[in-house]
Amino acid sequence: MGQRKTTPAKREHILQVAAQLIRDRGIEHTTLATIADAAGISKGTLYYYYSTKSDLIFDIADRHMNRMTERIFRWLESSGTALSPKTVFRMVLDTVMHSRSRGHIHLYLIQEALTENPSLRERFIEEYHRWRSIIGEGLGRVYGGDREYTVMAQVLLTTLDGLILQRLLGAGTVPVDDVAAFFEQAGEMFREHTPD
Amino acid sequence: MGQRKTTPAKREHILQVAAQLIRDRGIEHTTLATIADAAGISKGTLYYYYSTKSDLIFDIADRHMNRMTERIFRWLESSGTALSPKTVFRMVLDTVMHSRSRGHIHLYLIQEALTENPSLRERFIEEYHRWRSIIGEGLGRVYGGDREYTVMAQVLLTTLDGLILQRLLGAGTVPVDDVAAFFEQAGEMFREHTPD
Amino acid sequence: MGQRKTTPAKREHILQVAAQLIRDRGIEHTTLATIADAAGISKGTLYYYYSTKSDLIFDIADRHMNRMTERIFRWLESSGTALSPKTVFRMVLDTVMHSRSRGHIHLYLIQEALTENPSLRERFIEEYHRWRSIIGEGLGRVYGGDREYTVMAQVLLTTLDGLILQRLLGAGTVPVDDVAAFFEQAGEMFREHTPD
Amino acid sequence: MGQRKTTPAKREHILQVAAQLIRDRGIEHTTLATIADAAGISKGTLYYYYSTKSDLIFDIADRHMNRMTERIFRWLESSGTALSPKTVFRMVLDTVMHSRSRGHIHLYLIQEALTENPSLRERFIEEYHRWRSIIGEGLGRVYGGDREYTVMAQVLLTTLDGLILQRLLGAGTVPVDDVAAFFEQAGEMFREHTPD
DNA sequence: GATGAATGAGTTTTCATTCAT
DNA sequence: AATGAATGAAAACTCATTCAT
Asked: Residues in chain C with pLDDT < 50?
């Protein structure tokens, strides 16, 4: 655990394929046989790279989270420039929600983390903290001033999770624009009003 | 849709037990054998009451959602009175998040709806819409005026789902109070500022 | 563990069949599919009775040991009568070695106990102690006097294990008669000579 | 039979490592992957030296038995001198039982010979005969006279196997001393009493 | 000599579901 | 109403073995 052999191309490929399958049909219906098939390899070979389904899932989760973190970091950088807050919000929402597929995995992984996989859970918590602070920092930069935007970051992040959920359910069109606008106004208000 | 044969006590019991098990270990890891065991009946009997696992799950989801809807309705009624907005927000958050266990099942059911159970999914979407409008209405009443609080209701609801997720993960303390405060201020701002 | 449902006939049947198969081909080559087949049931049914291969094996071991114990007890009773020592020895040897098949299982179980199955090991040790004391007691009765026949019982028992091994290997004819004679003479000598 | 290609160092190393693993966990639970790993080579390389798992095991057994034979021979030589019978017995017992680990492998190999490996079985039988006659000869020398000590040798050898078994199980302390004493007395008796 | 990659045939395990009683 | 018994189809996992480089 830790000394992962520098992910060879094949491993990478398997990861990709598996992630795709999970997105499409959920994990329960993504059997190792299916994955092997889709990856164009035998079950044996799959085993060669991942000796357990859990292992595979953990790796998928890992990459998933790394990617989100990366995206948020990129946002943080660009947020330094003089973008309008609204644009920035849209960006965050878009960025993180990204695609239906990604969301599906996100949700699944959370579940998995909850019931089966303590280490995965650790990983999630850790990452959530990181995201929160990055976003908080970014918000501070966008709005200037020295107010703490932690809470707002929290709400934003939380809302993102919720949006992913709802979008997954296909609960009508999720009004990303409106939500962005909401947060923008809320943000401004935060800047203006000093808390008691 | 709705007039189910007057759920006998046994059926009720099974429901309760199954819900508990699902909370604890997730749907995939809750087998019918386990449920039957925990309910103190045989698998055969379980099938007498529910001819399919899906049926059982649907019923659990049904009751779960009915309960949430009921709570929100109660809130709507009480919101008619002159409560402070912040109090109201807290109430909603508390009400819906309610308990860790309830949240857990909520998440599982969503997952289930996503991958397995199209009719369950329908049910969810329907219910979400209802919640949204109830909450929107309630917000309108709290803040007065004739602005549309749909978006805010949406965000609020979304955030709730997100909060449930994060609480489940045990990602630190979820600052319900802060979130409530955030929404309160945002709400006030909404009332004051007229959109262009 | 412990509250075994009073072994219904089917369970008994499975046990018998499985034991036979193990005798014939060893455990590695006795797959659950083979057992199910031979027992005329499906793999699923096999699972109904034994949810794990280990469980099944444990039960086989259990019965195996119970039977040996029972036999030895019977011998103890009959040894009270005035049989000639040599006859008695023969009886013990025959009784315990019994059949090639039984020996095979015995050996396998010991191995299993050694590497995998601590509880099985416990069981073995326990049973060995019991056998030792029963045999010792019986020897005392046969030879009369108040000498301790523990050591002799130990050697006898040990030799039995060894005989089983050698018979299994098919290492020529095991001269049970000669061995019996040897022990008989040794026993007599024990009685006559007082240790220093 | 015998002139094996002058076992290179690597082959020797593999043998050693594999033997150790088998001692620790038994043959079934010792996979080629494990052996390769422990030997610090790849599975491919392992196959370069041993084209089959059976081959490898045969070699291990071969060395194991050669060593025992060698020890018994050494005993035979020393038994020519005027050691007290009891000392000699102790020596045999100690020599053969030697160490827990060795005993362990002995048992595993027998098992393997029984179920898998007919040629290994041949080898065992052959070797057992050899041991028997060597020991018989040695006994004759120790006790003098021209009586046949074959049976006693048989019992002694058999008891050794049994002792190994019991020691492996950790069934209390194996009273090697007592057993040695028992055989000594039995031996003396053998010398004195002429059979009818 | 050495190896990493690939494989397939088999083995255990899981479980929703059916049904005679 | 209730149940124990039975099942099959599918899933995860195991591992000795092969082979191109």
From this structure: 1-5
Instruction: Render pLDDT for D165-191 as a digit per residue (tens, 0 to 9).
Output: 777 777 566 677 777 888 887 777 777
Alpha carbon D154 to chain centroid, angstroms: 14
Which of residues 10-49 of B have CB within 7 Å of strand F? 10, 41-45, 47-48
Write the DSSP string, chain C.
--------HHHHHHHHHHHHHHHHH-STT--HHHHHHHHTS-HHHHHHH-SSHHHHHHHHHHHHHHHHHHHHHHHHHHHTS---HHHHHHHHHHHHH--HHHHHHHHHHHHHHHHT-HHHHHHHHHHHHHHHHHHHHHHHHHH-SS---HHHHHHHHHHHHHHHHHHHHT-S---HHHHHHHHHHHHHHHHHSPP-
A58 and A47 fall within a common domain: no
Q: Which of residues 16-75 of A touch strand F (CB under 7 A)?
A: 29, 31-33, 43-44, 47, 51-54
Q: What does the pLDDT read at residue A37?
A: 95
Confidence class of residue B172 from pLDDT cuts 50, 70 and 90?
low
> CA of B44 and C1' of E20: distance in angstroms?
12
C117 and C189 fall within a common domain: yes
Of chain C, the end-to-end C-alpha distance in Å amounts to 49
Q: Which two tokens stand for residue C34?
A: 């083979």
Domain boundary at B36, B51, B66, which?
A: B51
In a shared domain, residues B147 and B159: yes
pLDDT in tens, B81-133: 666 777 777 777 777 666 556 677 787 788 778 777 778 888 888 888 888 88
From the CA of D189, how many Å to the nearest CA of chain C?
7
Residues C46 and C57 in one domain: no
Which chain F positions have some atom within 7 A of a protein CB? 1-20
Chain A residue nearest residue B172, CA to CA: A125
Rounded-to-integer distance, Cα C18 and Cα C35, Å: 6
Q: How many domains does chain B have?
A: 2
Looking at chain B from residue 68 to 107, which residues have their Cβ under 8 Å from any Cβ of chain A? 104, 107
For residues C93 and C180, membership in a common domain is answered with: yes
Decide if A133 touches B, using CB distance below 8 A: no
> What integer pLDDT is reported at residue D33 of this predicted model?
95
A22-60: pLDDT as tens digits: 888 877 789 999 999 999 999 999 999 998 998 998 899
Contact of A106 with B110, CB cutoff 8 Å: no
CB within 8 A of D120, min separation 6: which ones?
D54, D57, D58, D61, D109, D112, D113
Which residues form the domain of B81?
53-193
pLDDT of A100 strictly over 60: no
> Can you give the CATH number for the domain in which C109 is found?
1.10.357.10
CATH number at residue C36: 1.10.10.60
User: In which band, very low, low, confident or very high, does the pLDDT at D1 lie, cut at 50, 70 and 90?
Assistant: very low
What's the pLDDT tens digit per position in A132-166? 888 888 888 877 777 778 878 888 888 888 887 77
Question: Does C24 share its domain with C61?
Answer: no
Distance CA C124, CA C61 (A): 9
Q: Is the pLDDT of residue B3 over 50?
A: no
pLDDT reading at D38 higher than 70: yes
End-to-end C-alpha distance for chain D, whole angstroms: 44
B4, B96: one domain: no
For chain D, percent of residues with pLDDT exceeding 90:
21
Cβ neighbours of residue D192 under 8 Å, at least 6 residues apart? Answer: none
Final residue before a domain boundary, out of C51, C71, C88 = C51
Whether B97 and B179 map to the same domain: the answer is: yes
Contact (CB, 8 A) for A128 and B169: yes
Per-residue model confidence as pLDDT tens digits over D47-65: 999 999 999 999 999 998 8
